[in-house]
Amino acid sequence: MTKKKKRMSRGTMVKKSKSFLGGLFRYVMIICLSYLILAPILINISTAFTNPRDLAFPSSIWIPARFSIENWHVSMLMLNYGKALPYTLFYTTIIMILQTVSAMMAGYSFARLKFPGRSILFALAVFTIVVPPQMFMLPQYLFFKEFDIFGIIRLITGEPINLLKGGSLFILNGLCMGLKSGLYIYIFRQSFRALPKELEEAAYMDGAGFLRTFTSIVVPSAGAGILTVAVLSFVWNWNDSYYIRLFDDTNINYLMLAFNKATGSVDESLARISTKIPATYAFLMKNPVYEGAIAKTAALLVFMPLVVLYMFVQRKFVQGVERSGIVG
Amino acid sequence: MTTQNVKPIKEKRRGWYYRMPFERKTALWGIIFLLPWLLGFFLLFLTPMVEMVIYSFNEVKIISTGGISKVFKEFENYRQALLVDANFIPSVVETVLETVLFTPLIIVFSLLCAILLNGKFRGRAIARAIFFIPIIMATGLMMQRVSNLSGQMLGEGQTENIYGAESVAKLIMSIGVGTEMVQYLLDAVNDIFEIASLSGIQILIFLSALQGISPALYEVAKIEGATPYETFWKVTVVMVSPMILTCTIYTLADLFMRSDIVNLVYDKGFKNAQYGLGAAMGCIYIVINIVIIGIAAGLIRKVVFYYD
Lengths: 328, 308
Known about the structure:
The structure holds 2 protein chains of 2 kinds.
Chain A: H1 2-48, H2 70-79, H3 81-112, H4 118-130, H5 137-145, H6 152-157, H7 168-174, H8 181-193, H9 197-205, H10 210-221, H11 223-239, H12 242-247, H13 255-264, H14 266-272, H15 288-323
Chain B: H1 2-13, H2 15-19, H3 22-56, E1 58-62, E2 68-72, H4 76-84, H5 88-117, H6 124-131, H7 133-138, H8 142-154, H9 158-162, H10 165-175, H11 179-198, H12 200-212, H13 215-223, H14 228-258, H15 260-271, H16 275-303
Antiparallel strand pairs in B: 1-2
């Protein structure tokens, strides 16, 4: 009896130490990778809060020697942040809604509504993921520059309308051809296919039409997938500067475009706002270290709204990813 | 009462719809739901694609009053891209090599991360929140800026600084390892960071796949006396193998899209106004992409296991 007990306990001990080692390994890996991900961000935050005079000190890499918000002030001026932030928030939100809704409709159609030729069309939808949108820049540019629906507008007003600055991005996203729309269609298709079919069948039995079934049965039960796509869409459109550079190159109210232009030549951007920079820091002009710090702070300013958003939706997003059935 | 009176009239008016069999209705609504995509696909994808192929055989100029002029040039643009342009072929080769090299690394890395994050352990919520941060930084220029910009400003050796790898590098050098070896190590550190920032979506997909594996399979493996090593290779990897296919295709497409070639094509078009040449380069590039993705998909499809 005692012998048996002893053997068992040794067995559990081995098991325990094994699982302890496994756990330790997991923690070590996770901490290393977290450091890898967080280090550049943390170092940028520290630089952003460093007093401009201390920037070159090697001692103030991780913790600023003298704390200051001067860099933030200058970067905000450089990006025209007060105006650009609400503008970008507003436009990105509209684009996100358009893109999510259109992808959702297409995804539902591909998942549940059978019609001849559907599988070929779905293959084409997947194909759109593979082709870089940059390849179409000239045709798409011309399409919106001389926007016309089968010559109707030309017939009425005499010439096509220029939609480059107004509406081009909305049309693009509303028609499922925005940034990575193909991926969202794929995600929605998978997540709708994971829903139990009985729900919809019950709705049809009770006399609901297709639209009604979609809006009041399917959409509410696909919350996880919608959240996943909405977050991805918002974030990627926020970070994108290709489309806005193509369609509306001068609109620096878009934060990402303003950021790209400003950091393209920090020299010039600082010179433009030099009158607003306190005279005590004037000696830092044209100093590459200082310009680097300003650029880093500007990057944080562009990135920060996303972090705030992410903090709000993070828990639901991570759970949602698991339940959205991306995998199907 | 009133509803009873109204109903027959309504049915009469929309009779054709009500008499339609359910399958036909489904098909009709399928097309209605797909209408935005269909419009977008034909107007903003297929037409531009055809136009691009046409451009690639022409010399294209934008007329300031509107519209474009085309002069047919046969294969002149392709000849220019493949034989004359000094940058195109080297950068295509470089892109293809880099992509083929990076994709397996990204797949392995993201599968590893997903396995690390899967399961219960203390601090899981925080770890997941951190691991998904690359997603919100991935596509934009943000990551490049965050890691490279000051590198340009401060001169070389900035990325080494971030991770404190410089002191490690000095330590290794003092032992007597050559500079090239150290440089390789530093590059590897740099690459890991890049891989981490490219793996966001893939981690997400793998995590979702791991959650979907039935616990019964692991129980069976345990009862049959499989070691964790065997369980990993014969249950976990096999069950997520369809997602390896999906992730590989996505990764390849994503890497091709980030390549410098895309910028090269853009510059040829909008900066140098050589739209025809740009279009030809774009066509060549897309064909190469599709061939590589096709080969990869074909190879992986052979080993993928579908449970149902």
